[in-house]
């Protein structure tokens, strides 16, 4: 997936870019209610030694975008559903006297929160990996 942006800050081998939100973001609505007109900032690996003010092309593999989305959204949702289903079965097996549905929901939410915490703890590892980091591949016009 290729995008373009302007470098607004640079340090060592990383650069911060200001970019326009991709058109696919309009249908997502996960941030800023899908308002395409707002700019976003991202950090990208600066392999071409671009400078502040340069207009650059940024690339990230589509499969890596999908993997990152799965880690952030699909796995927690899966854990929520598994917590609800297995919580319901386990509570019935142990003859729980309270509200089984409410307790199953609490177990599912608890597993989802634990999953988010594990993802947050591993975030530095994901950031160090170039697999999930956008890469500046080309300087389109220099300052």
UniProtKB/TrEMBL annotation:
Coiled coil: none
Highest rank taxon of the organism: Bacteria
Keyword Lipid biosynthesis: no
Keywords associated with the record: Membrane, Transmembrane, Transmembrane helix
Pfam families assigned to the protein according to its UniProt record, in alphabetical order: RseC_MucC (PF04246)
Segments crossing the lipid bilayer: 70-91, 103-121
InterPro entries: RseC, SigmaE_reg_RseC_MucC
Protein name: Positive regulator of sigma(E), RseC/MucC
